[in-house]
Amino acid sequence: MRLRLSQDARPQAMTLLIATAISVVLSFIPYAEFLTYPFRIFVTFIHEGGHALAALLTGNSVSNLWVATSGEGLTNTTYRGLFSEFVISSAGYLGTMTFGALLLILIRRAVAARFVLLGSGIYIFALTMIFGLIKPIVSLTDLSGIPFTLAAGIILSVGLVLIARFASAKVAAFFVSFLAVQCILNALFDLKDLFTLSTSFTGPMRPTDAVNMATATGIPAIIWTVMWIAFALGILWFAMRFYVARRESSYQPDLPFEETTV
Q: Residue 127: helix, strand or coil by DSSP?
């Protein structure tokens, strides 16, 4: 079925294309990672938060959630059977893609960008305080990951709330689009890296979600990686299909380039 861009989606599509173009250009500029570093840490929180939420939804527990200065993360959970291990292992990459898709859908549904940013800030703060600070202290697990996780989580949370509070509506809306693009692109790039790590041509395999599933099931890590890539592309296709469709509600006044009539 051929998809056509709805007339009322064109202003929002322009915003999304600009956010995507900026993200791609920055990836080719030397030392631009200093500019994108906060967004990388944000995506890591979303990734690890996906593992944590999946653990809770499957009746398991979370002992800690760490975010490292390198942008990598670690979430330690319990597993109750193969199904829960599959859900928890899948929730990192797919959760990041889903979060990015959700941001796009919320903008398309004319949800105010300020509320989206505020909700994202509260979510990051909750992950930080509950799984990055309280749970490790209560369970007396390795406490070495607390300092950076706590500092990064608080800075990101405060930053998102300040943007929601003081930025103009258009800036806030563009920022939501940029966060969505960062989540989607990082999920795809991370899955690409996982695909490389899951092959037998790169030497000994590093511990990854795909390797964990391979150890639990005997199914090669590359199979799990390909399956997650397929699911991630399916989520992205659904979000974009929703994004280009005609919107029944009124226009989103927060969006840059939004066309209005008097």
A: helix
pTM: 0.85
Dihedral of CA atoms 47, 16, 233, 246 in degrees, nearest 10, equals: 120
28 three-class SS: helix
Please tell me what DSSP assigns to residue 201: T
Boundaries of domain holding 51: 7-244
> pLDDT-derived band of residue 81, with 50, 70 and 90 as boundaries?
confident
The CA-atom distances, in angstroms, between 157 and each of 32, 76, 160 are 22, 22, 5
Structure letter (DSSP) for residue 134: I
Among 181, 177, 187, 194, residue whose Cα is nearest residue 254: 177
Is 258 among the domain residues? no
In a domain, 249, yes or no: no
Mean pLDDT of the chain: 84
The token duo for 39 is: 């967004």
126 falls within a domain:
yes
What are residue 74's DSSP bridge partners? 66
Residue 259 included in any domain: no
Q: Total structural domains in the chain? A: 1
